[in-house]
Design goal:
It is a single chain. By secondary structure, the chain is mainly β. The chain has three domains: 79 residues, Immunoglobulin-like; 70 residues, Sandwich (Immunoglobulin-like), CATH 2.60.40; 54 residues, no CATH class. Helices cover 13% and strands 43% of the residues. The protein contains two helices and 18 strands. The strands form five sheets. Strands 9, 10, 12, 13 and 14 form a five-stranded antiparallel β-sheet that branches. A hairpin with a 4-residue loop joins strand 16 and strand 17. The C terminus is likely disordered.
């Protein structure tokens, strides 16, 4: 296209006319860039980031050649002009801890601003296990852990949706694993994992005087018994009667 250098405006002349022509030519140049794919289609993505992405590099792409990168600003909002309208774009970035996230937005058929938010996914898996055990949730190459409190409860914060393998370990003993399917951010999911604990017993006076050695952290609640006499009755009457040792599971 040409320019508006020869356009006349009735009643306008001199410097005022030149100023009008300059404004018209600037608008024409931007229109030409849009038509030729050089500077954008008039479609703009307004991207809002969670605070965890501040200062990190982000990428915007349509997967077919229109790719742009930038740095998440301190204000956590940035605008990106894209070439194609009526197209799906993917915005992706990693947090400082290395977790990668993405979000998609589809531009309309005409120019305009289209909003998208890149948010951190967080959900909780509450694991019931032995006190002081380390609970772990694994999804692919990502692993998240938490230590159980005195009541045997560990709250694991996970950063992705998916089917997690959950287990717990203490004193070198690891539980069987269970699967927990995490689907929604902000939700709480639960799992119970039992850890096998070997309890060694020293027997005296032909089983009439029993000495049981058990770590203090495994209090009686986990074994449904409350003291040495009940231990003796429980073992003698219900389990192995004068056995040298036995394998018990916490919580049953």
């Amino acid at each position: 296209m040409g320019n508006y250098g020869s356009v006349n405006v009735p009643g306008v002349s001199g410097p005022e006319l030149e100023a009008v022509r300059a404004i018209a030519n600037s608008a024409l140049e931007k229109a030409n860039e849009a038509l030729e794919g050089g500077g954008g289609s008039g479609c703009v993505l307004k991207i809002t980031f969670d605070a965890e992405f501040a200062g990190q590099e982000y990428t915007v792409t349509d997967g077919a050649g229109d790719t742009k990168t930038g740095t998440v600003p301190e204000g956590l909002v940035d605008s990106v002009s894209v070439k194609n309208c009526n197209t799906e774009y993917t915005v992706s970035a990693s947090t400082a801890s290395g977790e990668q996230y993405s979000a998609t937005v589809t531009t309309g058929a005409y120019f305009g601003q289209y909003e998208v938010t890149l948010a951190v996914f967080t959900a909780t898996i509450t694991v019931t296990t032995a006190p002081s055990a380390e609970a772990k949730a694994v999804l692919g190459g990502s692993a998240y852990t938490a230590t159980a409190n005195g009541s045997g409860v560990a709250a694991i914060s996970v950063k992705k949706a998916g089917k997690y393998t959950v287990s717990a370990t203490i004193s070198g003993k690891t539980s069987a694993s269970v699967e927990v399917n995490v689907t929604e951010a902000g939700e709480n999911y639960t799992a119970t994992v039992k850890i096998p604990i070997r309890v060694f017993m020293a027997w005296r006076y032909n089983c009439r005087n029993i000495l049981i050695t058990i770590p203090p952290r495994y209090n009686s609640r986990h074994w449904y018994i409350s003291g040495p006499q009940m231990w003796a009755g429980y073992v003698a009457d219900s389990l192995f009667y004068c056995a040298a040792d036995t394998l018990l599971n916490n919580y049953g």
